[in-house]
Design goal:
The chain has 458 residues and is an alpha/beta fold. It is built from 15 helices and 16 strands. The protein has one domain: Metal-dependent hydrolases (TIM Barrel). It is 29% helix and 20% strand. It has a 7-stranded mixed β-sheet with strand order 3-2-1-4-14-15-16. A 4-stranded parallel β-sheet has the order 8-11-12-13. Helix 6 links the parallel strand 9 and strand 10. It is globular and about 60 Å long.
Length: 458
């Protein structure tokens, strides 16, 4: 069915609507793309409909993805990225500015919007602008012009804003524009040449360690700058992306408790994988011990370069802290950090591989695996993929996720009780750099509707 077609049909399953604070067996009717009725079922009408079966969810929203266009279309284009997003259940995706050229002026924003329109996909494309010119960390980009062009935030993702002075000015300027700074927390002076998270696994494998202090120190600096700025610019907001360590999450918790306008997200791969996977283990974080050699967990070869990511995969304790942060509200959102790469960039020695996992199509499956393992209630997980990201975007969010009768249907239908095999052929993304290739994962997306139109249908 064409992506331009408005959907008509009746859907039955377990509905989860975090905006309404409700979940349960339900029947949804969509006519000419509009959700015309949502009936909550009980008794015999609800028989066979449960959270382990067909799910009806608001369309998912991704705060952090890389579609590579312009500049590296061999790895991904806007069109293939949107197709992958729809396959993963996402109806809104925010793109990061580390393209070539960087998204540091309105003309690049226009190019990406034109590519999205040409794709014919109804999935919404949001765009984050760069903090500094060329993302070089030397001069602030034209933040006002980018804001006028409709960007949803500012980030030098892939690199931290090295200068504290520039970061402070960026928080002030963006705050006056009502937009967040989306910070990549990393201290490059501690991570240069690093290959894996510092610890037992990296030591045994002979990989140069990436210290936790590189994330913790950067988070502390950004929060301190925010605390200083917000006194004069109350609209200043800081969002810390792909936070991966318990120590950094503790700092976010304290800052939020102090009333500072700071949010953060965690990624599906930091929730589900640990550094054990680099050694060849293939158990999820909630099953891991931290020592894959001691208990025979090694089932694959070591040094799979799809596992080289920034920040690196952490210990099981850090992964479980990411789940806990979602549960207690410290982490507002799950963001995929979808980072497709070509074989040329990944089929090299581990330490030479470019960082990144192609993950927008497997994100929901990994989250559902954690829900099934008891790491998080289903409703909380769904909120982290829908209403949580919308909260971070604030007024720039094009949709407030929810199952709203009378509005164009923006939803995803997922069979949580079914599984699918992740293969290169099954992935719509050009990026096949996934450690899940050949593995069965739960949660088959059956239908994705964006603004009432079919974005994906199995």
């Amino acid at each position: 069915m064409s992506a331009a077609v408005k959907y008509n049909g009746t859907l039955r399953g377990w509905a989860v609507d975090p905006a309404a604070g409700r979940e349960g067996a339900a029947e949804a009717v969509v006519a000419d793309g509009v959700l015309t009725a949502l009936t909550w079922l009980s008794g015999s009408d609800a028989e066979g409909l449960g959270p382990d079966g067909v799910l009806i969810l608001p369309g998912l929203m991704d705060l952090h993805a890389h579609f590579r266009e312009p500049g590296n279309e061999d790895a991904e284009t806007v069109a293939t990225g949107l197709a992958a997003a729809a396959h993963g259940g996402f109806t809104t995706v925010a793109l990061m500015p580390n393209t070539t050229p960087a998204i540091d002026e309105p003309s690049v924003v226009s190019r990406i919007r034109a590519a999205a329109a040409a794709s014919g996909s109804p999935v919404r494309t949001l765009i984050h602008g760069a903090v500094t010119v060329g993302r070089k960390g030397e001069t602030l980009a034209a933040l006002g012009e980018l804001a006028d062009a409709g960007v949803t935030g500012f980030s030098d993702d892939g690199s931290p804003v090295k200068s504290a002075s520039i970061m402070r000015n960026a928080l002030m300027y963006a705050g006056s524009l009502g937009l967040p700074i989306i910070d990549h927390p990393e201290d490059h002076t501690l991570t240069e040449g690093a290959e894996a998270s510092e610890g037992y696994v990296a030591t045994v494998l002979g990989l140069k360690g990436w210290p936790i202090a590189a994330e913790v120190g950067s988070v502390a600096r950004s929060i301190a700058l925010l605390a200083d700025v917000v006194r004069d610019v109350p609209g200043a907001r800081l969002h810390l992306t792909h936070v991966s360590t318990a120590a950094a999450l503790d700092q976010v918790l304290l800052a939020r408790a102090a009333g500072l306008p700071v949010t953060c997200d965690v990624t599906p791969h930091h929730l589900a994988f640990t550094d054990e996977w680099i050694a060849g283990a293939r158990r999820f974080a909630w099953e891991a011990s931290g020592d894959p050699w001691a208990d025979g967990a090694l089932v694959a070869g070591p040094f799979d370069t799809s596992l080289r990511v920034n920040p690196p995969l952490r210990s099981p304790e850090d992964a479980l802290a990411c789940w806990a942060a979602l549960a207690d509200g410290t982490a507002t959102a799950i963001a995929t950090d979808h980072a497709p790469h070509t074989e040329v960039d990944k089929h090299v020695e581990f330490g030479w591989a470019i960082n990144g996992i192609s993950g927008i199509e497997t994100a929901l499956s990994l989250v559902l695996a954690g829900v099934a393992a008891g790491q998080l209630p289903l409703a909380t997980a769904v909120a982290a993929l829908t209403t949580g990201p919308a909260t971070v975007l604030g007024d720039r969010s094009p949709v407030q996720p929810g199952l709203r009768v009378g509005e164009p249907a923006d939803l995803v239908v997922v069979d949580a009780g079914a599984s699918w095999t992740v293969t290169a052929a099954a992935l719509r993304s050009k990026g096949k750099n996934s450690p899940l290739l050949g593995r069965d994962v739960p949660g088959v997306v059956r239908l994705t509707l964006a603004a009432g139109r079919v974005a994906y249908e199995a």
